[in-house]
Amino acid sequence: MSSARNFAVALRRARVPKPRFIGRPIVSQIPAVAATRAFTNTSTLRATKEVKYTSDAYPNLKRNPGFAGITAEDVKFFKELLGSPSAVIDGVTADAADDIEPFNGDWMRKYRGHTKLVLKPQSKEEVSEILKYCNGRKLAVVPQGGNTGLVGGSVPVFDEIVINMSRMNKIRSFDDASGVLVVDAGVILEVADQYLAERNHLFPLDLGAKGSCHVGGNVATNAGGLRLLRYGSLHGTVLGVEAVLPDGTIMDGLSTLRKNNTGYDLKQLFIGSEGTLGIITGISIICPPRPKAVNVAYFGLESYDQVRQAFKEAKGHLSEILSAFELMDGRSQKLVRQSTGNKYPLEGEHPFYCLVETSGSNAEHDMEKLEGFLEHIMSEGIVADGVLAQDETQFQGIWGWREGITEALSHLGGTYKYDVSIPLPELYQLVDDCRERLTKLGFVGDDDSFPVRAVVGYGHMGDSNLHLNIAVRQYNKDVEKAIEPWVYEWIQKRNGSISAEHGLGVAKKEFIGYSQNDTNLTLMKQLKALYDPNGIMNPYKYI
Amino acid sequence: MSSARNFAVALRRARVPKPRFIGRPIVSQIPAVAATRAFTNTSTLRATKEVKYTSDAYPNLKRNPGFAGITAEDVKFFKELLGSPSAVIDGVTADAADDIEPFNGDWMRKYRGHTKLVLKPQSKEEVSEILKYCNGRKLAVVPQGGNTGLVGGSVPVFDEIVINMSRMNKIRSFDDASGVLVVDAGVILEVADQYLAERNHLFPLDLGAKGSCHVGGNVATNAGGLRLLRYGSLHGTVLGVEAVLPDGTIMDGLSTLRKNNTGYDLKQLFIGSEGTLGIITGISIICPPRPKAVNVAYFGLESYDQVRQAFKEAKGHLSEILSAFELMDGRSQKLVRQSTGNKYPLEGEHPFYCLVETSGSNAEHDMEKLEGFLEHIMSEGIVADGVLAQDETQFQGIWGWREGITEALSHLGGTYKYDVSIPLPELYQLVDDCRERLTKLGFVGDDDSFPVRAVVGYGHMGDSNLHLNIAVRQYNKDVEKAIEPWVYEWIQKRNGSISAEHGLGVAKKEFIGYSQNDTNLTLMKQLKALYDPNGIMNPYKYI
Prior knowledge:
The structure is a homodimer.
Chain A: E1 5-6, H1 7-12, H2 41-48, H3 54-57, H4 72-82, E2 88-90, H5 97-104, E3 117-119, H6 124-137, E4 141-144, E5 161-164, E6 171-175, E7 180-184, H7 189-197, H8 215-220, H9 228-231, H10 234-237, E8 238-244, E9 250-253, H11 267-270, E10 279-286, E11 293-301, H12 304-318, E12 322-329, H13 330-340, E13 352-360, H14 363-379, E14 385-388, H15 392-410, E15 414-421, H16 429-440, E16 452-460, E17 465-472, H17 477-483, H18 486-493, H19 518-531
Parallel strand pairs in A: 3-5, 4-5
Antiparallel strand pairs in A: 1-14, 2-3, 6-7, 7-10, 8-9, 8-10, 11-13, 11-14, 12-13, 12-16, 15-17, 16-17
């Protein structure tokens, strides 16, 4: 990072002609952040063997006695239905523990189920036959995409059958004129985006797990990610959803039209429903043209107030080209440094850092706007120091300081993760209050006798979305009890959301009342009962 | 328009310094297009007396005998509930025909109901009490906003009670930092936008009827409008909906958070449900910063192929600042000229015209991009001639050629309006095919013996959304039969939508099958039955 232009220095040299930033195709600029989460099932396998069963970690969860147990007869049916041996992992009539384990556990090593059967359908018709059968037999199921979630939503709790979507992985069509992409649910996000990159378009969603997560899972969990600020939520960009209901009904809603006001917008129900209403088998989505130039700047600030000022100025100066405004606190950056061994992008340390990305169609215009913004915040004393990426390596390097946090934390033992929405003025206060609380209780310290290693905050400032992460040496019930429900009460008082983008899963199910009132919960339960009267879809989770 | 810079001429003078376009605040630039649709109830009153009753025009619609008739007792209850005399227009126990008529008819003079009771609640609690009572008594109701719709969705068919939302018209809150606006459903769109303009923000929806339509009605009908291309659909921008269900339940979903993944996104069901599930009483919506500079260009083209080329180039050159790309055919512009007496913006006549608007944060950058685009399409021979607005009067003048079409058509007798989505390659073909069909049948001609005066096409090219308008000397069943269901079959063959943004209402109810399959229709009917088991909400319409 030493060759990155330090714009504080550049500003002091006032009249020296500014280096021009030459726009490069974004294709090569998107950092390979996937690596930070692109784990293989093998690595998960090694991990899950030591992981506690969810049924033990959550003793209040009891297997629903209304569900049938899987029989050899059932397995026979599925094997005949799906044909290919690779489509059924059978731990019921055979010993397949090692093959099954990766599907029972999550990458955080927090959740672990008891399934003995994994099915990998290859078409919506197969999904339909599976669900119709399961619904008739009252066999519970868990739809599973890339299994990159953070709330235990995509792994079984008991013996639910895993319906893994990885074999439904075809790109069905792309229309260059309208930007509409139609894909199978099991297409990996990064694969979809690379396909679009070759056609000069961009998938309007980007997140750390892009190398593993499925677009179907993204839609099922209403993923937010890094560029929601610019491209909006999936409720706006997804044009159509093809889904199979528990009774086997195929809902063919794969519209490729941007506008279609003919009746209730059924697809919206499935966006964010976490596999509790049906299984998404395909989506259509409108994709913007790929920006011709992308820039990224990184700067240090002395206070959260200054972070807020910088964000306000970024919105004013960068407006339509602002594509990300990310906040990272000093502690989170320290963890990345320790984990990667990389040198800080800036000299000295600061309590706060921001990453600002622009994406636009004219490199010179964008750079002029960005320089105007940076000069303004420097001259106003809003930021202390900053760098602007000058080439692709620096671009990736800077993004690594934001994207590397999850990875850095994962090396430390365990992490209690809270993904919350809070109105901007108090966004970071939660981190300070949480740290103070845990410190007072004697949980936080540098040596191994303290359960808590660090309380860090970072996230999507542009969306009022904070990730509060409590890094622990190992998962610890006392620490957990000190955080919950305190953290949810704190959020409720500020009319925030206890789950901004990660969803509910197992982790947040019992806390939904902090963000939804009784009326809304009743209405949600009505919908669940309407679509899934037997309750076989992803039970023990969500609402 | 004579002083508008003709860029064809400017390009011929190659090296002459180009006039600089100075960005002005958009506040004063938004044309007063509302005037084209800002009719008063008085004018509607005069009109409705001659309008055929919907129950006569649609003899297959029969009053549901399950609904109760309104009694004097009911009127007494509502008067006591609502208190203010202005809150109840009572044609049941008194003669109030003249006062009631404006609420029975629509502005197009196409639909007319038989209601004898209009209620104007002022709070969600009043709406709740009204609906609870009506649901208990099985009294049918029609929610009514600004009554600017085009499909007869907001006027009664028989004696449904009109619940007019005009007295729920308060702006509840606005947060400058996040851009989140919370308003009553009965706030007029233009009022909301003016309020935001004073605070440097923009309502992310704009349409011709802005001077009369309510934001609640916009959300209930999922209005699209002029800038969907830039700001996306209401499914993405609306953050929360407060609605009252038929049983009086108040669904308080007025979230002000951009991200909230805690359960099914209930509000989405109400967006575009046209008052059939409940009554929207308030909305929260995320509003972008108001662009600092807005430009508009208007040009003539020789073929629809060139229109498509121009659109493709506009997306490439203007990208993030493109805020509207509108198509108007030559016939539609001729009608505007005849109606307004204004001189054409361009010399000569062309079969197609486009209007391109940019909105951005830097006037110089925007003008450079726009000039680059215009020079490119001129030098490539894609467009024949064009003008670029140089001041506010010209800006308004140019928009008048697009916005004035509806008004111009309304002077001609009647208009059969079709608002459809069709994939771009064949978008305009529908107009040609329809004109050819009606001409062959001997319906089209210049003198008064022909029922059809003109078949015109215009619309939101950027959203693949065409408005096919057939101007008739008077509404004529033979013409109608020649158009329908032919037009719907034509659209179905191309996987289009028979209603892109206008909704279903009475007009499109029976044709929904052309755009939705049986499975989807069954699912929609399930939802309707779940929320409104007595079917009292806006009956005889929608699905």
